[in-house]
Each structure stands twice: as C-alpha cells, then as structure tokens.
C-alpha cells in the first residue's frame, strides 16, 4: 500500500523523478501529475519533453507553477498525486518575489488536507559549495527549509542517488 505522503529527494539528474513515477505507477489507481516547471529556454523545454515522453495516457496532467492548493484540494482518495517538483515550484515563487514563508505554509497545509496519497519530488541543494551571490544563497536556504518541512510531514522519505532509493524515513511498500 502506498503511504499517504511520500517525499522523494535527490540531486539533479539523480533519477528521482523517474523513481517517483515508477512508484506511483506500481499502484492500480488514477494518477495525477502536477508539473510545476515553467519553460523559458530550449534546455528546459528538452528536459520537459523527456519527462512528458515517459508518461502515458493513464496520467492526468496538471500544469501549475504556483498554486498547488486547488489541485490538492480537488484530489480524491481513489487517486494518487505526484508533484514534480518542489524545487521548480519554490524557484517560481522566489523569482516572483512572493513571501516564501507564506507560500510554504500554504503548501504544507494543502498537503495535510489532501484526500489522496501524494508523492512530492525535490532537489537536494545542500551538498554543494556556498553560492557566490545573494539570490542563490537565499534559494539554497529556502529549499533546505522546504525540504526539512516536507520530510517532516511525509510518512516516507526517500533519497535517490544514481537511480537507487535510500529510505530516510518509513519503509518502502
């Protein structure tokens, strides 16, 4: 049985999104993929295409770069929600100069209310060097705080490294 709440963490190109998709697909239920990324250049567009090509018509796709409350509140217990990813969602808010503490609190509240099991993917950004500019340092700190909050709220927390899951909290189904 899929836990009610799963947090999947990993570095860039670690296989975390693929692993999360496979976890969700392993259950015979309706699947909703909430894509948070915004496409501003050809590199991101190519990465989005790779992700899209992995998903078949069993997935309902919701593109929502900012407000995750509406799709989470609309979720039903007989489906599973995959949010990919918290890092892009946070970046969108940071670049729009939104109140990060407020949007994080709103997200966490929506996840607590969500009637469906959810899986949220996020990047680990704390293993690198200290960024050389204020915006990057602000992002790193905000992402770290968000990851801590998501891991605390999740029943299952998994770090994916080289495509392999390492359970940090809970147990794999």
Topology at a glance:
Blueprint: E1 5-10, H1 16-25, E2 30-35, H2 42-54, E3 59-63, H3 69-74, E4 79-84, H4 86-95, H5 100-113, E5 118-123, H6 134-153, E6 156-161, E7 164-169
Helix pairs in contact: 4-6, 5-6
Give a nutshell description of this structure.
The protein is an alpha/beta fold and 173 residues long. Helices cover 42% and strands 24% of the residues.
Q: Describe it for me?
A:
The structure is a single chain. With 173 residues, this protein is of the alpha/beta class. Helices cover 42% and strands 24% of the residues. It contains six helices and seven strands. 31% of the residues are buried.
Instruction: Give the strand tally.
Output: 7
**Which series of helices and strands comes N to C?**
EHEHEHEHHEHEE
Distance between the termini: 6 Å
Q: What is the topology, as strand order, of the major beta sheet? A: 3-2-4-5-1-6-7
**What radius of gyration results from the CA coordinates?**
15 Å
Gross geometry: globular
Mean pLDDT: 94
**DSSP strand content:** 15-25%
Q: Report helical residue fraction.
A: 40-55%
Q: Helix count, per DSSP?
A: 6
Structural class: alpha/beta
Reported for the largest beta sheet, the result is: 7 strands, mixed
Q: List the uncertain runs.
A: none
